[in-house]
Amino acid sequence: MNITYTPDSVSFTCANCGKELHLRKRSPETEISGTFCPQCDEHYYTRWDGILHRGKIVSEQDLIEQLADKEHARWAKWMLYLFSKCDVYDDGDGYEQYVIPRELVTRWKRQVETPYADLSEQEKQSDRDEVVHILPIIQAYRQEG
Ligand SMILES: [Zn+2]
What we know:
This protein has 145 residues and is α+β, with helices and mostly antiparallel strands. The chain folds into two domains: 52 residues, no CATH class; 85 residues, no CATH class. The longest helix is centred in the middle third of the chain and has 26 residues. The protein is elongated, with a radius of gyration of 22 Å. It starts with a strand and ends with a helix. 6% of the residues are buried. The model has no long low-confidence stretch (mean pLDDT 88). The structure holds zinc ion (ZN). Zinc ion (ZN) binds next to loops. Zinc ion binds next to loops.
C-alpha cells in the first residue's frame, strides 16, 4: 500500500484491490475524514493527526462528532429560517432588532408544549425529514458495533 501525504490530503492505493484513492484531510476542529474504495468497499479514514487508517470510523467519540456536525447544521438552518420570519427594525446605530411576529410566537409556543405524538401529521413529517440527515451516520455506526 503506497501512501503519499500532502498538507491537506492523502493519496494511496487500496490495500485490497490496488485502486488509486484520495482522501482530503479535515481541520483539527472536525477531527476525522473518511472514504471507501468504490471498487471493493474497503474503508479508510484519517484522524486529526492526518495518519491514514484502514477500516470504518467506529468510536463513540467519532459518532458524537459526526452527529454534532449535523446538529449544528440543523440549528443554523433553523436560525436562518427564524430570522427570515422576523420583522426587522433598524435601531439607527448600526444594529437591528428582530421581532418574532405574534402569530408565530403563538404557533411555536403551542408546538413547544406539544409532545411529538400529539403533533399534526405535517408537523411530525418535518421532524422526520430532519432525522433523515443523521440516519446514515447511525446506520454506519451500528454496522460496526
Ligand atoms: Zn479497493
